[in-house]
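Give me the fold.
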Amino acid sequence: MERGKGGGGIGGEVFLSVVIPAYNEAQNLPKTVALLCDKLSACVPSFELLIVDDASRDRTGAVADELAANDARVLAIHHSENRGIGAGFVTALSQARGEWFMLIPADLAMDINELGKYFQAAQNADIAVGLRSDKSDYGLFRKLVSFTNITLVQRLFGMRERQFQYISLYRTHILREIGIEFYHSAFFHAEILIKAQARGYRLVEVEIGYIPRLLGRATGAKAWLIVHTMRDMVYFWLRGDWRPRK
């Protein structure tokens, strides 16, 4: 893991850390960073953007370094090999200075004007769980996978939330306290919520408008990732130590 040239300007504790996992996102990054900086400046007292270039094959790494060099609130981090979104989440978490932490995709995948809903919800919560407004860009297979994943998490772990893999806002100390184990699959999103609930932390759902990506290609629906996610889910359930503490 290597830090980008422009990362040295971030100092002291900040209110919010945003990780932007980026694999071949050179087209999306400049616009996304500009939009986030503009919107977050109006929503929170201070923030940092942690771009994790996941060994991209395009100019993502160079673009991230350029953005970091031009704005002290931006930090570029580089994986030497492709490790996936969960690993990017954990890498950014290890360097985050914010009281709050959230993952926002390089293509945004949300109506940026609704970002403030998370911070409003956080006034009465430890985790604001985002609910994606629609799945109109999902094909039949992906809809089936999503439905199956949600149903299994609800039934196996007694979770009442309606979604588990969209953008959420977390208290950073909770993420560090629980220890994220399954970051090699998409199950890490649900893992965080299950462990947080078991420890008595407050989860509040927030409905957020979803906007499909315009540039690049999504990489989250690969067959191997789906298999690994299901495997990790079943293993965690069988292990049994996720149950609420008495």
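Confidence is low (pLDDT under 50) at residues 1-11.
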